[in-house]
Every structure is written in structure tokens, then in C-alpha cells.
Amino acid sequence: MAGLELRAGLGHTTASGALNGPTVPSEATVVALARALGTDASPLLELRRKALPTAAVRTVVSRDADADGDAQFEERYRQYVEQRHGQLSVVGLDLSRPDRACWPLDAAYLSLELSASIPVGRAGDGLPASAELRLGTPGGEVRVERAEQALAGLRRVLVRGLAGGGKTTLLQWLAVAIARGDLPTELAHVEGCVPFVLPLRTVVRRGALPGPQDYLEAVGCPLQGAQPSGWADRVLSMGRGVLLIDGLDEVPQTQRAQTRQWLRELLAAYPQAVYLMTTRPSAVPEGWLADCEFTELTVRAMSARDVAVFVTRWHAAAAVATDTEQERTHLAALETQLKDTVRSQRDLARLTTTPLLCALVCALHRDRRGHLPHGRMELYEAALSMLMVRRDRERDIGAPEGLVLTEHQSIQLLQRLAYWLIRNGQTEMDHETAHALIDDALPAMPQVACQSDAAGVLDHLLARSGLLRAPAADTIDFVHRTFQDYLGAKAAVEARDIPLLVRQAHDDQWEDVLRMAVAHARPHERVTLLRRLITRGDRALRHRARLHLLAAACLEHATEIDPGVRQEVEQRAAALVPPRSEEEASALAAVGPVILGLLPGPDRLEEDEAEAVIRTAAIIGGDAALTVIKKFRTSTQARWALANAWNSFDSHDYAREVLAHIPCDFPVTVRSPEQLAELHSLQTGQVGFLGNFTAEEMMAPLGPQDLHYLNINRNFELRELDFLRPYTALARLGLFECPNIVDLALLADLSSLVTLELADCDAIRIDDLEALNQLQSLSLDMELPHPNLGALPVSADLTTLDLGTATCRSLTLDGIARWPNLRRLDLSGPIGGLSHAAKLLELEDLILLGDACLSMLEELPPAPQVNELWRGSWRDGDDLSLLPTKLPGLRKLTVWAYAPERPVDLTPLRGMTDLAIRIQGTAPVLGTEHFPTNAVVRVPRPRVGTRATLPNGAAELQ
């Protein structure tokens, strides 16, 4: 039994209960046991499903004896969520039958890739390798995984993504999977939970943001009247609630502070609940929720493989909705042709970066019998025409509502609705408002007015346009925000509202509207719009970078533009180049390929600039971006960024043209079979593997004397480490989320191994550490059975000790003095016994990350031997007043602070004039006047302005 528990990575109680207990084990437990037994989990999962009562298949009910009412309602609610969100609207799926425009979520959902940036520094900052590695990549900046893997174990997440990027669909899939109890093993932490889908565009329109008791009413759920009193509160209090909060970017800027406060109150009241929010990238700054322990993930552009899968599924769905074998055969041919076209035409590949764009391309390719528009605006224009006109023409429908509208008439009316929504910061309106807007338009449209009143026209647009929908009885919105912005921009240009567009240009909700307005405008209107935009940027220091970059982004949509204006815009953008941070890189990349021509090569760039330039090009992707990156391939200062850009390009091309030319040893992480196939050609001894690679696959390309560093992350198949025996030169080993590895005894034979890092490897036999006398650095992030460090079976003379969040929870620092040569101590959470650290006379560096707050220093006697302190994730209540007395010998201080409302006040340190201070992040810093020039360094370095001087007489505007 004990061996099975270890191999499965399960505790004794969990394993025993699964085999002999009265309750049905979780799916995650069944899968873990199946892996430990070396058998297929599918039959066991089917037995588990049959063993569940009907209601229990979908719900895990509160253990309270009086919870019958809750249980019955919860089952009804789960069925509602499954039905309500179980269909996915697929654009253009069947123009002749709108009832077939939806497809079961199971068949249509595509798991996209999410990227996570390491939140506590960058490669080159000097952050301990253990802290970087625990977060997933060997010293790199970005971890890329499929959505279910990226979300594994996370309870607070903010997902950023472009319009049409799949954010809402991700929440929809999660809601249905949770309601059904049909979750992948990676998401076992939300098994048995209850999903609440809260589209902010809907709830903010109703006034005050709702409390738990009002969630169902706020989204128009018909079951709200049957909800037991206090049910939602009980679900959230027990940590069983999953709040899926969609569309932070759709909240007007004036209400975002209120929305954030609403969220903070929820977090305070229900800290155990799961929270997942979505937003467009520029709506809120980086680290907006970092102090609330939110992990930020970004939806990546669809890869070539994703596009191929999407195209296959779209055509499969269309084939099912087709009545004739001839049409199904034709669809199969179109599918093959489209895949070939996307692969061969780079410009078209740029149009298929999101599910929305990919669906539009599929629909238009079918509609035009294989012919496609070339640009994004042409794509939108063709899609609108297709959705509004061709559907009824194919069905040979005349005027079922007694009303016939031309395409132009329909667009004019839809523009009016779209522009009202944009001007009022909304994405939904009530029927009364829509009626009034159409009624106001009818006197100027006599050919429409003579056919019907406003109510009839609105009903016709809802039924026939393919662009409007009624998500609730009293609500109207566009099928996608992109169409609203396209039509609203056209209305703004026709209304000559260029001053309004410029006034609102700093608001992220207007960004796409501005870009599309430039495309819609006539040449002289473009000149006026762009000149006013850059002039406002010249005068408005606060919004300068955003406005100048937005003007540059608009150039891509300007089919004809005065050369002098183009030069003025490019000059402003060039002043923001090179970027100095990941956030600046993302902002530049949003401009599009036009910015690539302004990116400099490696000469005379600082390290942070070189890395940010590479990051910018990697986000944009494509051949032109690869050309930019190739300029840096012989630069030693940018090797971390070069390695991390591998995921953004074809594995073979990037390995051959970039990685193979890096002149020094560099860390690289292998995430796919395609990257694994290229590993043999890379001259590196620092390798990480992310995923279920076998020992043979990992070691085949690596020579025993060449491998110095190895990181194995999220490998649920690996069970033994015997394959490492020949690798006698291995100096560092990191094992992260490898639940089936037990035995570490082999590592004692690797005399060069001096650094070992273990995280979420709960089956590991910790007593094996006793034999690893050669270790100098040890990192642990898992719950341990030992009460304190004195009881930990480690006899090596450690110089670095890193304790992760889980380890800090499970023991104290009592006994740390057993390592008198310890020079570096990393803590990622509150832990008892910090006073014992003062006995370490060689201790030089103290690192406090996450919840390991500065207030912990109160327990520490004066420790003058510590000369460097790192504080990650500046939080509420953090202040530096303890440092002069507790760490009087401090010479270097590094603080990560991103929240703009949490300034770092250096005033308490004013007597420590020899202190070198580094502030990583964009939070305000106070008290710098007490320190010599250059004593306080900001990363990224602040930009004083994008131009040396303002025009004569120009005032600084907001």
C-alpha cells in the first residue's frame, strides 16, 4: 500500500479512501492511481461515473445534514449552466440556417495557449535561480502552456487577450466543464465547485455591482427566484464557488476603480473562492491585481497547428449542418485548400491569429468559393456583407416581417446603435434605447419609415442582420465587440467627430475605434485625425506614449496617407524605441509589423532594452520579426530573451537561424516534440523540459559531459531518475510538479551536483537528502513532515536555502544555525523562528517573496551581517521603517512594486546614505530626495518624455 501511495503521489488517507472508503474518489485520484498501477484510466473513470448517484455525477454537495434544498437547487443550476453555455456561436457556420450557427462546445472548443510572465523579476536581475525555476522556466521570462495546464492549481487569475481571442469562450468552457464535473486532471482543484458566469458588460449596466445573493438576477438567470436563501454565500464561503468575471475592459474607465473595490471586498469576504477575470491587454496596467495574488496570463496568437485544428473543426461543424453529400465533399476540398493557402501566404497567416478572425476567414473562404480578402478591414467589410445580405438571398426569403432593407440602409441603422454604445462606454443597451435611436433615424430614411415603425425595424435587424442579438429579454448587443467598433468608427467619421475621437483616444475602449476610423476616413480626414492625435500626445505627458503609439498603429490601416504626416507619426514612435520593459514591448508590438522597421539592433543597447526589443519582435512574429531577432543572435547579453522567443516561431527555422548561433551557454526550455527534434543541434548545457517527455526522449540529444543544468517541469509520467547516472557533470537539478518521482538516492553518486530544487513533488522520499553531502544550494516548495529545519534530514553544508510557500507553512526556522556558512536565505511565506537567522554570521542576502512581508523582521534581532535585501510583491502594510535597526549593515535593497496606488516610501531609510536601491516596477516612489544622485534606480527606467521639448506655448494636458 505504501509503495502505491508513493508512486501515485497521494497521501495515505486519500489512497486508502479511494480503495476502501465509503465515498467515490475524485477523478484526479482515480487518474493518479491508474498511472501508479501502469494501466489505462478510462475504464476506471467509467466505473467511477457509474458508481455516482445521478445527482452526484454533477455535484459535490455540502456535508450539512440540512443541505437538501441547496443540493436540489444546485443540481438544477448546474443543468442550467450546462444548457445555457453548452453551445458556441460559430461565425458564418451556416448562412442559410441561422439556427445551425451554434455548435456543441465539446466539438467546437479549442484549447489555446496562455503565457505567464515571471512576476518577480527578469533574467539578469540577480534573482535567485530557485525563485525563477519554481515558476517554470530556467531563468527565462515566459512560460507557455495550454489553457488547462496554465490554470492548474491557480485560484486567482487575470487573463489578458485581444478582441476575438477566445477569452469569453474559455470562461464558457470552464463553466460547462465545472457544471458537468467533466474536468481535465490539471483542473482537479475546481472539481465539485459551482460556476458563476458574470459578464461585466451586463452587470454594470444594471447599476451597483451585485453581491452573491444577486448574481443570478444580475445575469438574467430564470432560476433566481428559486434560489435558497444564502445559497451563493454558503457556496463561496466553503471555497466551492468559481467566479468567472468576463470583460473588465468593457467596464467604463470611470467605473474601474469601483469594480476593483468590489473585487477586493469579494476577496476579503470569500478568500477561498476561485476567481478568473478576463480583459483586453491595455485596459489595466501590468500588475493591476498583483497585490491580491492574481496570476496574470496572456492568450497567445493561434499557432499554425491551432489554426489547422480550428479549420478542421469549423468545416466538420459546417458539414454536419449541410444536407447534401455534394456540399460535404465540397467543404472537404475547401478545408484542404484553405490550410494550404494559410501555410503558403504569410499575409493570410497574420489574419488567422484569433478564433474570431479564423472563423471569418473560414466563412468567407466558403462564401467566395476559395477567394479571400487581403487585409483585416477588407475582411471585416466582406464579413458584414456576408452576414447581412447573402443569408437571406440564399434562402430566397423576401420580406417575412413585411420589411426590405438594403445593405446600406441596414449599415446606417446599425452604425447608429454601435456609435451610441461606444460614446456611452457600453456594450449592451435596452430595447427602449434602441427603439428611440431608430425612431430618431426614420424621418431621414423615408424608404424605411414607410415600411415599418421603429419596433418593426429593430425586430428585422435582430432577425436578419446576423450582427445583433438579444442575450436577454430586455437587452440588445452586437454578436462581437469587433463589429460594434467597426460600425461605430464608420459612424464617427461620417459624423465628422474627429475631435471626439482624439479626446477619447487615451481610453483603451476607443483604441480599436481609432484604428478603424483611420481606415474608414478619406485621405484629408486621416491627415487631420493623425495630426491631432500626435499633437495631443505632444501636450499630454500622462498619455503621451499611448497616443503616439496608437497613431503609429493606425498607419497600418491607412491605405493612403500624406508622406509628411507618416514621417511625423513615425518620429514620435521612434522616440519610444527601444522599449525597456515587457509592458513597453507589448505596447510596441500592438502597433503591428510597421514598428519592426524602427527597432534597433544590439549596438549601444542596455541589457533591458535588448531583451525588450527581442520580446517585441517575438510578439509580432513572422519573417520580418525573425530578421530583427537574428541581429541579436551573437549578443551575449540577450541570450535569455533569445531562448524564450523560440515559441513564437517555427521550431526548426528558429533553432537553425538563431539559437544555433548564440556564442555562449544559454538555458533553453523544450515544450514540444518539434523543439525536442532540434535540441541536438544546440550547443547548450542548460536544458529544461516542460511536459510528459520520457527519459529516453530527454537524454537522447544530450551528451553526458555536456549537461550541467536540468529542469524537469510538469512531468506526470516520469517515475525514476536512474537515467541521470551517466551525467556526472550535472551541477543543478530542478524537479517541479513531478508527482511520481520517489527515489533521490541516485543523486548521491553525482558528485558535481551542488544545487537541487524540488517543488510540488510530494511523493519524493525526503530522507534521501541525508546522503547528498555535496549540496550547496537547496530549494524546497512542498509540505514536509518535519516540524522545523533542525529535524530536516540534510547533512550538507548549505550556503543557499530557499523555502517556498508550502514549506514555509509546514515548518519553522528553528535549527537553521546548523548551517553556519549559509549566505543566502529565500522565504516565500510567513514562517516562525526568523530570530534564529540572526545567528548565521555569514548570512549576506535575505529574500522575502510573496507573503513573506517586511513585518516579519520584527522578530529578528539586529543582523548587521546582512547586506542585501530583496522584497518581492510590495503589499499593503509593507514599510521600510524596521530596516535601519534590524539590518543596519544593509548596502543593497531591491523592491518589486507595480501597483500605482501602493507607493514605496524610502523616507525611513534616509539615514542609510550608502544604500543602493533598485525599484522594479512602476509604482510611485517617495523620499528619493534623501539619497545621492543615482542611488535609487528604477527598472524600467522612467521616460522623462517622448520629445525633448514641447511646442511653443503647449500646455501639459491630461
Structure write-up:
- Helix 1 packs across helix 3, helix 17 packs across helix 18 and helix 26 packs antiparallel against helix 27.
- The protein has 958 residues and is of the alpha/beta class.
- It has a 13-stranded parallel beta sheet with strand order 13-14-15-16-17-18-19-20-21-22-23-25-27.
Short description:
This protein is α/β, with parallel strands linked by helices and 958 residues long.
Topology:
Layout: H1 2-8, H2 12-20, H3 27-37, H4 41-51, H5 68-85, E1 87-89, E2 102-104, H6 105-108, E3 113-117, H7 129-134, E4 142-146, H8 147-150, E5 156-160, H9 167-180, E6 194-199, H10 200-203, H11 215-218, H12 231-237, E7 241-246, H13 253-269, E8 274-279, E9 295-299, H14 304-320, H15 325-344, H16 346-351, H17 355-367, H18 376-395, H19 407-423, E10 429-430, H20 431-441, H21 446-449, H22 454-464, E11 468-472, E12 475-478, H23 481-494, H24 498-503, H25 511-520, H26 523-539, H27 544-554, H28 563-574, H29 582-589, H30 607-620, H31 623-630, H32 639-644, H33 651-657, E13 667-670, H34 673-678, E14 686-690, H35 695-699, E15 709-713, E16 732-736, E17 755-759, E18 777-781, E19 800-803, H36 805-810, E20 824-827, E21 845-848, E22 868-871, H37 883-886, E23 892-896, E24 904-905, E25 916-920, E26 925-926, E27 936-939
Parallel strand pairs: 5-8, 5-9, 6-7, 7-8, 13-14, 14-15, 15-16, 16-17, 17-18, 18-19, 19-20, 20-21, 21-22, 22-23, 23-25, 24-26, 25-27
Antiparallel strand pairs: 1-2, 3-4, 3-9, 10-12, 11-12
Helix pairs in contact: 1-3, 3-4, 5-9, 14-15, 14-17, 17-18, 19-20, 19-23, 20-22, 23-25, 25-27, 26-27, 26-28, 27-28, 29-30, 30-31
